Amino acid sequence: QVQLVESGGGLVQAGGSLRLSCAASGRTSSSLVMGWFRQAPGKEREFVTAITWSTGSIVYADSVKGRFTISRDNAKNTVYLQMDSLKPEDTAVYYCAARRLTNRNYNYWGQGTQVTVSS
């Protein structure tokens, strides 16, 4: 099992920045892929970005490219999501998730953290 705890959400004005953190514990290993997802009210959960722990390979959703940056701190078993140039449409609950490299689906999820961007 892998436990994930997010932190860092809050309220920010459009154009501002926030940094989310996701601390992983339990059976963590370099075989994990760590991802961020978000779910806005009335919408389905959507993929934001992911990083492969062992290689550092990163993918972003088109909607956040150039504005969001995912990074990792191996020593702290923590993944960060730096969000810049925030827009009201970025308002959502953000979830940290993890999967093994051999799995297609993310099966470990954090509790979520609210990000609200005011116009």
Task: Give an account of the 3D structure.
This protein has no helices and eleven strands. It has strands at 2-7, 10-13, 18-26, 32-39, 46-52, 58-60, 68-73, 78-83, 92-100, 108-109, 113-118. It is globular and about 40 Å long. The protein has 119 residues and is mostly beta strands. The model has no long low-confidence stretch (mean pLDDT 95). It starts with a strand and ends with a strand. 0% of the residues lie in helices and 55% in strands. Strand 5 and strand 6 form a beta hairpin. Strands 2, 4, 5, 6, 9, 10 and 11 form a seven-stranded mixed beta sheet that branches. The chain has a four-stranded antiparallel beta sheet with strand order 1-3-8-7, with no helix packed on it.
SSE diagram, text form:
Elements: E1 2-7, E2 10-13, E3 18-26, E4 32-39, E5 46-52, E6 58-60, E7 68-73, E8 78-83, E9 92-100, E10 108-109, E11 113-118
Parallel strand pairs: 2-11
Antiparallel strand pairs: 1-3, 3-8, 4-5, 4-9, 5-6, 7-8, 9-10, 9-11
How many E-type strands? 11
- In round numbers, the mean pLDDT is 95
| SSE ordering | EEEEEEEEEEE
Coarse shape = globular
Approximate strand percentage: over 45%
The secondary structure category is: mainly beta
Taking all Cα atoms into account, the compactness measure Rg is 13 Å
Uncertain spans: none
Keywords:
119 residues; mainly beta; seven-stranded mixed β-sheet; four-stranded antiparallel β-sheet; 11 strands; 55% strand; globular
Summarize the structure.
By secondary structure, the protein is an all-beta fold. It has no helices and eleven strands.
